[in-house]
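Handoff note, outgoing to incoming analyst
You'll be picking up this chain. Sequence as last confirmed:
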Amino acid sequence: MKRLLNTRSTGSGPTLFEWQSGVSQYLAAAAASASTIRITDRKGVLVDTIQLSGDCLDMKWSPSGDCLAAIQSKSLALVLWDAVAANGSLLVDTGMKNMELLCWSADGDLIAVATSKGNLFLYDRRSGKKVPVIGKHTKGIVAAAWSPTGELACASADKSFSLSNRDGDTTFQMGLKGEATNMQWTNIKNETANQHLLSMVVNSKSILVFDPQKPQQPIELAFNARYGTIAKYKWFKENQILVGFASGYLVVVSTNPRELGQELFQSKSFKDSLGDIAVSKALNSAATCGDSVIKIHDLSNLQDVSSMITLENERGLLTKLQFSDDGQFLTVSTKDGSLYIYLSKLPTLGYTWHTRAYLTSLSEVAVADFSTSPPVVAKCETSAEPQLLSLGPKHLAVSVGSKVRYHTMAPAVKRPSDGIGFNYISDAAASQAVGSQLSFTPTVWERDYGSPITALMMVEQYAVVLVASGELHLHPLEDDFFNPNSSKAPLTLVFPEDRHARGPEGEPTAVTCAAVTNEFMIFATSLGLLLHYDLDEILMVNEFQHSTGIKAIYPRPGLSTKLIFVDTNNKAFIMSPLSDSLVEVPSFPATTKGVLWETAPLPGRNIFVTWDDTTVVTYIYTPSTVKGPQCRGVHSNTTHLPFGLKPVLLLDGVLKCQTAGGKLEALPLATHVDVPPDVFLRKFQTDVEQGRALRLLYLAWTMLAEAALHSMDILVAKRVYRQILNDAGMVMNLTRIESVEERVEMQGHIAVIFGDFNMAQQYFLTSSNPKEALFLRRDLLEWDQALTLAARMAPEEVPVIAREYAIQLEMDGNPSEALVMYEKALATPIMADKDEEQVEHERVCVAGLTRMAFRTGDIARGMAMLAKVTEKQVLVDCAGILETLKQYLEAALILERGGMFERAAELWIKLKNWGKITKIIDKLNSPKIFLQYARAKEAEQQFVDAASAYERAKDYDNVARVLLENLNDIEGAAILVRKTRSRESAKMMTKAFQAARDFKSAVEFYLIAGMPNEAFEIAKSQDVVEHFAELVQEDATNEMLINIAVYFQNKGAFLHAGRFYLHASRYPDALKMFLQCPVTDGTSIDLAIETVGHAKSDSLTHELIDYLMGETDGIPKDAKYIFKLYMSLGQFKEAARTAIIIAREEQVLGNYRTAHDLLLDNYRQLKRTKAKVPAELDRMLMLLHSYMLVKTLVRIDEHVKGARMLMRVSNNISRFPSHVVPILTSTVVECHRAGLKKEAFDYAAMLMRPEYRQKVDAKFKRKIEQIVRRPEKEGTPEPTTPCPFCANMVPETTLDCDECKNHLPYCIATGQHMVLQDWCVCPTCEFPAIAPHFKNLLEKTGQCPMCSETISPDAIRPVDDPEAYLRGKKNDIEDAAAAATPAQQGPPGSRIGPGAVAVASAATAPAQGSAAPAAESKQALGTLRSGDGPEQARKVSDMAHGGLIGSTGA
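Most recent structure output, in case you need it:
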């Protein structure tokens, strides 16, 4: 801030001062003990002096600032000073002694003067009325304030305050806790109306807020005690109070009901003391003083101290602060009488042309040229504070009051055009000249226009001056004009001219606003007349009469003739003088202070903004749209105008604003800020938010496309629809119409896109292609309008439109009008390019006429026309119409013609014409028709035909009834009911079979009928329960199953009883029944094992084990049942070991196929349960499979492979004790046949041993002896193939690799070890095979040699990853060394073998028999057998090992 003035009083106290309200033109100051009030202007120049008879006690300006009132000591007079006359004062006798303070009413009419005795004096300045009020309070009045509605609030030292009306009558009075000071009224806006609140400081510690509408509910705002006493407070932002405490604290407290009393801000602003607070709404700032410092705070952020002034010699003495109402001055007083005045804000006064003029102080103007960098600035001193500035090519004009001073600038440079930004000069040399020589010449012209200046404008040759009297002066800028002694001085032209000086009724008119461009002077009058004058010829070129007065004009810069004017109704219009057309600016803000056009030289850029103190609104004017010229405001995206900025220029979406210091700041419009999509999306974090953002982007593009269409910019709209929205249909539509050249027709097409069809028709009819209106109405199915248009402009279209209209009328159910339209369509041939179109037109119309003839009741005409029709659909339609008219006979005949036999049959049924139905019965499929036909035949007692019809109608109950009751065909009915499972029919069958004494069939049909209890009772009474049980066991309830079981139990049929107990899940009873059955074929034991497997019960398992070991009946059972028990309990590993024992015994007995199948089945079950296969089982299966494979290989002439398999078996001949000699004999024969003579000799020599020689078959004995006598010393080497694990070469039939020590998988088709190439598996058993050999074997045998399932060679597919199979195979086979662990062998010294351990474990293990640790198995065995004696343990062990072989051998 800049200090303008400071004075020091010689008195002994502070100086009283008050700035003039409103215009802030004068400052009134009264020094202590000076008995004088000095009135000075804004520059400190003394204007007047008011002499007093004593000290000035108080003084106040009226709200309008036109009068100053003061009271003085030692006098009863009230002093009034008129600011308009600016001299002399008026004394008003109050008759009151001891005056203390005064205050003005809000309207400036009343003055209230209060005394220290509690009296009051009211003075009406307008009427001179005086109202003394004696005894308003018992003690002195210390504070007073008028409300905006005219109520006077007074606070007294008697600890009360009162409210009085304008006559001084008390309307309310209330006591307080202490003395009140600093009374203020404030206005708060709420949802319904303005609310006036009174606030005051009580006891210097709290603030009382009083609402006159709620007098009994005052609000007291208390503060923290550490803040101390309240020095001053000010209201701001309607519901917030800025409170300053004497201790230096600054606090903001809220009076908002939602946060009442809440401290919004708190700061220790001064170390020692705070003197006063001042708030300026014009600056949006607050000033505080204390500790010889003045701080300026931004009200938006009080922590932000924008300025600080230090008065070194005034520490602790600052007493009062005050801003002038316009915010330009800040004044502070001290306790010793000093007064300091600071310039807080310069007037935002400036003018922009090529250069820019702005104030740098109250008496200095700077002109800056921004075409150079840095800008060149020239300064000009003014004799007084300017009120208006103007710039031209050659001159700077400064207005003060009614005078204008014209300062000449050098050099003068002509600008190319108006308002095209700041860089007007395209010539670099000219720009350099301006930058280097910009200055003011000594030539200064001055002119007094006789009335205050309200507007000042200049062009190169002329000055245009608008004065307050309503006259517009136009005069040249020449020396001769300003030289009063010149004889050639041109005249001043004053407007309006005489012809425009008065209105139609003789009322005088005045110019209200004016503007100039390079070519025109434009002004408007109070009667709404808008005139354009050509500055070259000074001739009026356009005259426009508006309906009301015009108060502002804003022409568009550049070469455009458009302008915006604002009328007295605060409505704004865009006008073009070429056509005098007006477009109203929608939602024009009432607070608008100015309008700026976009000055960027871009074609079609019709953008302007309106601005007020806080907001900038962007508008877009579109001269060509679907609905004609339009203007719209972007109110949803306004731009905030920061405080203190004044817009001066709009350039390419950036608002150039002037600051109080004269500088320029750029403010981008919110409507022009470009946000890239990626930046926009980064604002949204979650997927849901980004999804919504994408939808917003899509909506924005859609709005852009629609806006482009609205502005008739087809290319932009098409581009958006194609590249962004991917709307192919819209792109095709726009492609179709983009070639339209006529604007009106194009408007019609776009109106169709927007759905405004009436407007589209108007455009089409006024265009050169009016048929588009016809096509539009036809496409909209608005046939009446289409026919009217066609009759007028395209008669050839009438038949087609009439036909389509007839079809629509027919669909709407209006046959009479449809008939007329069809006749009209047939009356005139269509203008068709092809005969087919004419034929199709006639066909449609004839068919429609026929239908409408029937619908209108003209049956004869319809039948006559229908006789020539062969189209099936027309026949069907006409038959339907006749049916609705109840003309069934004709309808049925037509339907038969059309092949609609079902519907024809329905009509014949209505007519009861069964003969007609009989003729077409074979062409029908409708069950409904068959059912009606069957009933008719049954009524005629033609039962066979009736039964057949019922069956075709799928009414099987009636079929069964006819068969039973009328045809006596019980067997046929039974077959039917068994098939249909109809309960009603089954009930009929039960009666028939009971009558025939066929109780088994009766039981069966009782069950079909859903009557199991009745069936059971008959079965019991007729002793056919076993038959009943066979029928019901799958579907019976548990109760029924138990009843059947009890019945069989009572009959002694324990096997049947056990089965039904098992089905009913009564496992203990089932096991009891099975164990009572005699052991014949083993069925009962198998069922007992199944029962234990389902029950998963330890007790039942023990009971069955005891039975199998012979503890129950003394007869040990076959060991195979232990294997089955393991399988039933899910103990697959134990089952595998038992299977090995059984298979070994079967192998010893020569039952090789049985042993093979047993091992294969167990192998596959172990694989399914993902349990490891014992190595012993795998080797036994391999050996047995090798033996079984020999026969197949020999049969398909694979003798070498067969011989190799026999050699493998012979090498393990001890495992085949029952057939040692036959196997060795076959080995010798096959080896000899395959050419393996060395091998044949080896096995022949084995046969010639004494123990085998006598057992050799006689027919082979001699041959074998010959082989032995002629030995072969060299054998045939066996071919080798790579090991699938390590690729080491291994003989084909060798299954162990010496290199990697792995056991190799073997091919089930050859017995050779597998190789990685040609690897395949059997689809059924999943054993590996070499694909070519396996397919060859399947082609010759058709069966898998391992599982004996029939397999097609085409089903064999190679394995993609044989190595995975190898890894699985290796993991699936149990290590031979781990096959018999101590846990499986039982504890040392125990006689219980592994089989018993498994059985014991199964009794205590989980349902699936998962392997448990050895310790748990031992514990379970101990628990299970804790009461068993050694004898029982020995029996279990015998059964599992030696006992098994012994019993089998026996």
